[in-house]
Amino acid sequence: MADDFELDTDDLQRRMDGAIASLRTEFASLRTGRASASMLERVMVDAYGSPTPINQVGTVNVPEPRMVTINVWDKALVGKVEKAIRESGLGINPQLNGTIIMLPIPELNEERRTQLTKVAGQYAEHARVAIRNLRRDGMDQIKKAKNDGLSEDDQKFWEQEVQELTDRYIKLVDQQLETKQAEIMQV
Question: Do the Cβ atoms of 47 and 54 come closer than 8 Å?
Fold first, then answer.
């Protein structure tokens, strides 16, 4: 019965890819001193009674390296968008010009850069934990199959497969973190 056991490593890999994609999204929201439209992705505006991403209430542009502009489509939402940006923790002070909100990106000081590298480290640790949880799920499936009669050799083979997959993705998280920290610390 258990001789035909095959762990769905494609599913584990797809779920680990999801953890990496989530990490990349979190990294994109970290400010590195250069203007980027992606830094506003996590900011939600209370529009029409529900939280709405900024890019759904206005056009986000990056006209120059240290400036992001948001052209809000509905005049009634300008104040709410401004408030959402102020409360987002991005450390940016919005400036109003009619329905256009300008976000000058200040130069990061050394202390703020250090804080951002720590935040990036926390994001990476969350991704590592997610990957380890997926490893545990895979190992639990193998243990269940062992109880159903999976041979010890097959058990060792599948455990090694799961461990190698986990190691590969943890290494990928570490590489992403190293790249992001170097980008943040670059003056």
Answer: no
The token pair that represents 121 in the structure block: 């480290």
Ranges in the chain annotated CATH 1.10.132.20:
9-30+109-186
DSSP 3-state of 3: helix
- Give the pair of three-digit tokens for residue 142: 């193998």
Which residues partner with 187 through β-bridges?
Answer: none
pLDDT in tens, 96-138: 888 899 988 877 788 878 888 888 899 999 999 999 999 999 9
pLDDT in tens, 36-59: 777 788 888 988 888 888 888 999
User: How far apart, in Å, are the Cα atoms of 154 and each of 6, 36, 143, 146, 157?
Assistant: 9, 49, 11, 9, 5
Residue 47 identity (one-letter amino acid): A
| CATH architecture for segment(s) 37-104 | 2-Layer Sandwich (3.30)
Up-side HSE of residue 113: CA atoms within 13 Å toward CB? Answer: 16
